[in-house]
Amino acid sequence: MNPNRLNKEIRHYLRSKRVTNPINVTLTQRQQFNGFEIDHCRSEQNFRHFKNVLNTKVFGNSYRRFGQQLQMLVIREVSSDKRHHLHCIFEQPNRYQYEEFERLVHRIWRSTNFGYDQIHIEKPSSQQREDGWLDYIMKDYTKVSLSTSIDYVNSTVLSN
User: Fold this and answer.
1) CA-closest candidate to residue 41, choices 156, 144, 153
2) What pTM did the predictor assign?
3) Are residues 86 and 29 in contact, defined by beta-carbon separation less than 8 angstroms?
4) Which of 152, 125, 159, 160 is nearest to 47 (CA)?
């Protein structure tokens, strides 16, 4: 399939898989930890650990026992200066105020091996802002291909 056609189909599909009560998140990653350089595999593994801790904090035993988890869309990106980072959309759980959930995300992300201090979290103020963020994280110019940039393992919204 033509790569442009594939990216167009992926964008269409992702627009149909919206996260409920979304929060826009950018998580930067350390480029090295204990002599290991970040790559897509380590990025995926580090985020999986973050996701497990976050879901356990939010849902307790229901996360492991019943599979309750936050809806998430996770897209890997490498900037022009070769810095790895993640653009995400997280579901904000109803039982958390925005500021409380923001602090929880900060604390858990910084505790991971590759979690870096530069984190941007925003509660979209309108449908236009939600759509704009989704368009931004699906942009082409910082990716080899959108299809290989999506973290399919950790993007829970894709299985809904």
Assistant:
1) 153
2) 0.91
3) yes
4) 152
List the chain pLDDT tens, one digit each, 160 residues. Answer: 676 788 888 888 888 889 999 999 999 999 999 999 999 899 999 999 999 999 999 999 999 999 999 999 999 998 877 788 999 999 999 999 999 999 999 999 999 999 999 999 999 999 999 999 999 998 877 777 788 899 999 999 877 5
Residue type, 39: D
Cβ 22 vs Cβ 92: under 8 Å: yes
- Report residue 71: phi and psi, to 5°: -75, 135
* Contact (Cβ atoms closer than 8 angstroms) between residue 126 and residue 157: no
